[in-house]
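Hey L., structure's done. Input below.
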Amino acid sequence: MSTPHGVAGCSCCHPWGVEASHITIPTDLLPADGRFGCGPSKVRAEQIDAVASLGRSVMGTSHRQAPVKNIVASVRSGLSELFGLPDGWEIVLGNGGSTVFWDVATFGLIRERSQHLVFGEFSSKFAEAAASAPHLGQPEVIRCEPGDHPDPIAAMGIDVYALTHNETSTGVAMDLRRPQGADADALVVVDATSAAGGLAWRPSDVDVYYFAPQKSFASDGGLWLAACSPEALDRINELTDGRRWCPASLDLGIAVSNSTQQQTYNTPALATLIMLDNQVNWMLHNGGAAWVAERVARSSSTVYDWATTREWATPFVSDPSKRSKVVATIDLDDAIPAGDVCAALRANGVVDTDSYRKLGRNQLRIGMFPAVDPDDLAALTGCIDYVVEALAS
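Output:
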């Protein structure tokens, strides 16, 4: 997003008179891959190769036939292994992404009333969907300012507790725990779009863990996936068995039925499935969840340690225990316009370090998903140092 003349970040108004896009970062400082976006994220070359290799045998063929169904089966079994799902859980998938799943959940998961923790742009969306649904009671919403997260509070009559594992807009992550004292059949439903495949979680504390594959799984959007417990499957059967009207495209019962047959209700984007399958198998081949945890811990330590040792940079999330290991948000001193830093980086092939637009802070937002090489994140910090020094010179 361009910055208007006269506003902090406008290159023509710099006190130092340096055009950010004219800064040349030395080649030996640059990362091998300059993609650090928080959605969509970096896609590994091997994933693109997988799409190309299956171009004739899968692309352009029916999703009801074995070649595609085998990929869906591989995705479902691979995710079950990666997440360590107990017996009785199912990986359910459908078209539309997490945005559509919020509507799906208002029909197929919330019986009457839900509680939502809102601490950023994306955690607010499910609450808005539930509040707009005419067949549901008004949700209970617990809010806090960006940069922190609230905790769920058990309340009588709440049948869904809606949590967000990682708030993509602010870089806040929360430890997932089932609220003590909640009604016995209440479900914990977690938006894991930017967390799944990057952050650890315990199935014992969750009933539905839903996400889209364009973050840690380095695929394209337009698909939602949900790990569902037996209790969640029971709720889905209860609500979609003629109890309330639901459009077929939003019917979780139909999605479950099709998923267990290794397919989606309607035609999916096959390239998305191929890239997702390749990424899941890459994670499992390298050591699974433990390997992923070590990799993102190394990456996040590099970025946060760097930020805390610079006089002009500060991690936005003040509590280290709530700092995301996959999305870092770093505030810059007002004298260093983040827009100019991003412009200089982009001119050198280092892209998508901009803050979330609606947060409105002088900030960098850095994707540290598993596909991003930790060494490239170390190189990124050196590039930022170089740009800041160049802007101030």
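The domain at 57-285 is CATH 3.40.640.10 (Aspartate Aminotransferase; domain 2). Residues 1-15 have pLDDT under 50 and may be disordered.

-- N.
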